[in-house]
Amino acid sequence: MIECKKFIFDVDATLVDTQAVIDNIWKKWCETVGVSYVDMSQYIHGRKIEETLHCISPSYACDVQVEKVKSIALSEMTKAQAISNAHSFISNLSPNAWGIATSGPKKVATTSLLASGFDLPKVMICAEDVLKGKPDPEPFIKAAHALNVTPSECVAFEDSPSGVLSAKRAGCFTVALLTSHREDELKDADLIVQGFEHLTVIKNHNGSYCLAAS
């Protein structure tokens, strides 16, 4: 059982089932520029748009292409749905006890969260809020500070190797969900579970929380 004060969640494939949606976003972008989706699919999860584009070719990491991807994403994210049992887990947390650390742009994250039925938390650290995206620890460090705690007082939830590394480097206890990657790819996490149905969270009298896995 782990005791903590706050929780920090990634969005895509962690709270919101966007796996197919994200794949479709990048497939549509690839069609517009003539890039092979197969060649770039390994870069699309857990990175800022700019970083994904740079992985394909530095020439694509420009404002025009970033805005093109954002435009496609805003349309596609309206189809997003919540990850199984994510709503139930979040319902056990006070509104000020959790926040977001995502590689996605704020408009896209907001669209997907609202489309899948979540209330927006007060703390949302998105692509625009950091100089260095995941796997750099900056997103989780900023999210923890915005929640008025240290990263070591937080439990972070992630689905991607870069996200797990980001949270671990920040100092968070890190839970990896097996929603988008294999278990061996998430080996750096402190805890790996199939989904929220295997987690129980209880609020203590002092305002902290206890998290247990089954």
UniProtKB/TrEMBL annotation:
The keyword Oxidoreductase does not apply. It comes from the Bacteria. Gene3D superfamilies: HAD superfamily/HAD-like (3.40.50.1000), Putative phosphatase, domain 2 (1.10.150.240). GO terms for molecular function: sn-glycerol 3-phosphatase activity; sugar-phosphatase activity. The keyword Hydrolase applies. InterPro entries: HAD-like_sf, HAD-like_SPP, HAD-SF_hydro_IA, HAD_2, HAD_sf, PGP-like_dom2. Keywords: Hydrolase. Coiled coil: none annotated. PANTHER family: FRUCTOSE-1-PHOSPHATE PHOSPHATASE (PTHR43481), GLYCEROL-1-PHOSPHATE PHOSPHOHYDROLASE 1-RELATED (PTHR43481:SF4). This is HAD-IA family hydrolase. It comes from Vibrio campbellii.
